[in-house]
Amino acid sequence: MPPGGASQAGLGNPWKEGAPDTAARERAVEIFQRLNTLEPGAVGAEDLTPEERPFLRFEAAAQELFDGWRAELEHRLRAEEDHPVLLSHLAKYRSLLPSLALLFHLIDGVDTGRRGPVSRAAAAQSGRRRHMEVRHDAQRRDLRLLLP
């Protein structure tokens, strides 16, 4: 199965069944190579001091989306309605949305030249939480069958 972000980020799907999509694979490789040599300033990363690592912030709308997503996740974790093993797993998701949003933003940046804060579109693309929650709800039911 292809990584979900590849086709969502406009890279096509080089992992599809049947004949390989050579053009999509070549485009993905080119973008990965450009990411590998990316200078942070090229995508508008901020650098407060020379000793610190450059960073990108969310734009206001992306921050709002992240705050809502994080609040829902924290509520679920604190409700303790799920098995501790699942809660431990879900707690690792705190960095999932911002990490994926940054990756999608960087891909867009090297592909289109977009600069500046991480966009709401990148955050929304990474926060397809309804899809993830549906999968986790199914996994949770399966886990309950396996755990004491």
Description:
61% of the residues lie in helices and 0% in strands. Helix 2 packs across helix 5 and helix 3 (60-79) runs parallel beside helix 6. The protein has one domain. It is mainly alpha-helical. The two termini are 32 Å apart. It has seven helices and no strands. The chain has helices at 4-8, 22-36, 60-79, 84-91, 96-112, 120-126, 129-146.
Present the secondary structure layout:
Blueprint: H1 4-8, H2 22-36, H3 60-79, H4 84-91, H5 96-112, H6 120-126, H7 129-146
Helix pairs in contact: 2-5, 3-6, 5-6
Question: What are its keywords?
Answer:
single chain; 148 residues; mainly alpha; 7 helices; 61% helix; 0% strand; disordered N terminus
Quick take:
The protein has 148 residues and is an all-alpha fold. 61% of the residues lie in helices and 0% in strands. The protein has one domain (38-146).
Domains (count)? 1
- The gross shape turns out to be globular
**Mean pLDDT over all positions:** 80
Largest sheet: none
Structural class: mainly alpha
Question: Helix proportion of residues, in percent?
Answer: 55-70%
Helix-strand topology string: HHHHHHH
Number of helices: 7
Low-pLDDT ranges: 1-5
- Record field, number of beta strands: 0
Distance between the termini: 32 Å
Strand % is under 5%
Rg from alpha-carbon coordinates: 18 Å
